[in-house]
Structures are given as structure tokens and as C-alpha cells.
Amino acid sequence: MEYPADMRDFARFLGKDTTDRQLLRAGREDVSRYVQTMMGKRRYSRAAVKRRLASIRAFYRFARRKNLIQENPFDKFQGPKGGRPLPKVLSEREVGKLLAARVHVDDEVLYSRDHAMFELMYAAGLRIGELVGLNIRDVDRERRLMRVTGKGNKQRPVLFNQTALHALNRYLAVRPNAATDALFLSRRDKRLTVRGVRFAFDAMKRAAGIEGAATPHTLRHSFATHLLEHGANLMVIKELLGHESLSTTQIYTNISLEHIRQTYDDSHPRDNDIKPKP
Questions:
Q1: Of 97, 104, 144, 243, which is the active-site residue?
Q2: Is 128 helix (H, G, I), strand (E, B) or coil?
Q3: pTM as predicted
């Protein structure tokens, strides 16, 4: 019977104490870390993870019915979904090439605008609609903080890094005076549209020599994946992305593993002799 073994494994993950008392102290973040470990370090399949979670979920439903716990850590928690294709992600090297691309070099306004836009998207994991909706007053450059309006007209604070700040300062130094408070302007000094951002991204992607179906939204996926690969907590990434549910953010655990595997396969010298020739 797999149920006892599953519970013992989860208890060992939580700490040295493998008793029910240890299990009853678990919280939502513990469950999230356990899923990360199974799909990351342990390299379990989605099916194996879902089976183990079914055992653990049954334990906490029973504990809640018996009033042994006040809150079920599985409330609103969903396991990994099978069959969903993983989003496209750029490597860190590709992001670097994109953000260094030289487009509109003879036009300082457009050059600095485009670099500021995509530095911000990658620095903060912005959706394209959130980017074009930004107003100047939404950006606190001193604190490197922005107020973003996301899905459902919900606002959230997002952080951005020093590199994005430098690019933003360069753009704001030459941004034309306009009747609109929009942060990013079109050639006609109106609020830049989603279509305009996509056009600018395609131009930079071509200049950087990046192939494939990358879009501005790819920068959001890349932001989350690279943070996870560098040790960021999944709950922190969830808040930065503005996700309602942790289950939505969990897809980046799967992306990260596949991204690491691809980098490994491309980089390890031992297999060079048996790789197919391009």
C-alpha cells in the first residue's frame, strides 16, 4: 500500500520527526517546496507527483474533518497539470543579446525607449498590457518600484533592477513632452499600443539574431524561469507575477527543469561526438 510510504516521505521532507505531529504542522509553502523538490531535484514525472499528492491530500482532508488542524494546506492548491505545453523561454545569453541589440541607433528617443521597455519587462516580469498601461506617476525610480495594473484591473507593486533603472533614466531624459502621462510613447507622442511593442520586439529580435517564436511575453516567462534557477522562492515569484494561485506559477518549475536539461545537453563535452550534425 503506497499511502503510508507517501506520508513517511513527506514527513521526512519536513524534518527528522516522522510522526503525525510533524505532518500536522505543515503549511502551504511546505507543500509547494515538496512539489518543487519532486519535479526538480528528484525529477519525478507529473503522474508520480500527482499520485503522491493524492495520498497527502487525503491525510489532510481527514485531519481537517477531525479538527486536528485549523487550515488545510491543500486548500486552493492544485498539483501539476499534465499535457500542457511549456511556454517558450529564452536563455540568459539570448536575453543578453536581445537587450544589447542595436535598433534605431540614429534616433535616441526610439532607441532608448525600446531598450527601457524590454529591460523593464524582463526585470519585472511584466505582461505586455501592464507595460503599455504604465504612467509616469506609477514609477518610483528612487525605490525602484512600480505600481502595475494587471488582469481584472488589480494593482500590485513590482520591483525592477538597477539595469532597468539606468535604461529608464536614459529614456526619460529624452522622452518628448506630451499631453499624455503614458510612460512609453509612440512616434506620434501618444500612448504606445500593444501592437507597437510587438513591432519593436520583432525588430530587436531580428537584430539580435534570435530565431524561433519568441514574443514580448517570452520575457515574462524567462524572468520567472531565471529567478527560479537562481534560487528564488516560488511563492515570491508568484507575488511578483501577480498570480492568483500558486498552481499557475508551478509551471515554471517544469520549465526550469527542461531548461536546465537543454543547457546540459547542449554544453556537456562528452556527447559532442554523437550529436547530429546541423
A1: 243
A2: helix
A3: 0.62
